[in-house]
Design goal:
83% of the residues lie in helices and 0% in strands. It has helices at residues 3-30, 35-62, 71-80, 87-102, 106-138. It is globular.
Amino acid sequence: MNNELRWKQRFGNFENAYALFLRRINEYEEFPYKEAYQMALVQGFEIAIELAWKTLKDYLENEGYDGVENSKQSIRQAFQAEVISHAETWMSALEKRNLTSHTYNVSILLETVRFIHQDFFPVLRDLFFKLKSHRDDLA
């Protein structure tokens, strides 16, 4: 499969995950103190961060970058290529995703929900619209 087709297909999956994430954000904003909505937001975050870095990886490979093999390398290269800003927020998101996948603690849940809503959502939104614009330009 060629790189352009691969990244466009991956972007389609990312687009679906972003839509799901937006629904979880909206539910959380309506009911911020309900644990079920907090946990649903974390689950949406886990899906979104996973597809975001994989989409970045495929996008970067399509743009001619080599040696992008994992999430941290994808974030670093995307930052250097000025595809994303706030690399520290993206790296924190990766750390939080690993933490939420392996641990449950109420204080970690609440801190993660705050991070997702205040810090991660804006950078994810920026990435989504940047990649969507690029994909649409290629169409």
